[in-house]
Amino acid sequence: MPSSPPFLGFPDRLADDRVPRVAIFGAGHGSTYPGKDSGGHALAADAIRAASQDDAALVEHWDFDLGGPLFDGKPVSCIDAGDIATTMHDNAGNRFRIEAKTREVLALPAVPILLGGDCSVTIPFLAGFADREPIWVLQIDAHIDWRDEVHGERHGYSSPMHRASEMPHVAGMVQVGLRSVGSARITEIEAARRYGSRFVTAREVHAQGVEAALRHIPQGARVVVTLDCDSLDPGIMPGVAARTPGGLTYTQMIDLIAGLGRRARIAGFDLVEFYPPADIDGLSALTAARLLVNIVGTIVRQV
Length: 303
Hints:
By secondary structure, this protein is α/β, with parallel strands linked by helices. The protein has a single domain (7-300), classed as 3-Layer(aba) Sandwich (Arginase, Chain A), CATH 3.40.800.10. Helices cover 29% and strands 17% of the residues. The protein has an eight-stranded parallel beta sheet with strand order 2-1-3-8-7-4-5-6, sandwiched between helices. β4 (135-140), α4 (160-165) and β5 (170-178) form a beta-alpha-beta unit. The longest helix is centred in the C-terminal third of the chain and has 18 residues, at 283-300.
């Protein structure tokens, strides 16, 4: 179990052998680059859990983001399974454990929610959906994360969408929230476009609304969402390693989540790149916790 109380006080298993609709788990480390330290990102899951505790007693209250209580008047159907034991620089071992846990949750069957960690954890998380129905990937991020390798590591935080494009079970990809400059070279942009990825900049969302992204996702598709916290504007999400002005607002983000739930089926979700050492007065942890509430509420409302 986590060292802090579980997210929103959720149990680690449901009574009467009921199968959960949603299962949350954390993974502090993925594939860390040589000479880099991922310890700051490993603090994220428990910081988000701690930020949720003020609302733990309010789960049955009306939530105006969702238009009703979190579980829509039904029994609790989400568990917090705690954290996978990951070790910095045990890259292959971490990937194995994250993928295995994802497969374990899907076999329940439940919708897995992964709390990272930097976004290298996204690669084994997506790999865990192999041998199932095809998925689309909705990446919400300031950056396209399409590097082939960095310092000889092909599974680090700059490469998750490139690795996803190589997975046979990934049917398509939409990348939303893009802005400013990042790790992308012209070659990465060209490779992503050749693959068929749909780019939606933050400015397009500001001008056109979330439909600028949703229109690229086929009706009824199974979608795995990977939400990099730097997709949000640093005014509400300062706790990231690469603050970039002009990001998405909280309202745009919850509208995107709700719109996706109506258009498609959310098959999995990860929240990555929250960096607690850079947070200001717990604002990022609070925002991340509220986004998770919206994801859980949207998933449990899916037919």
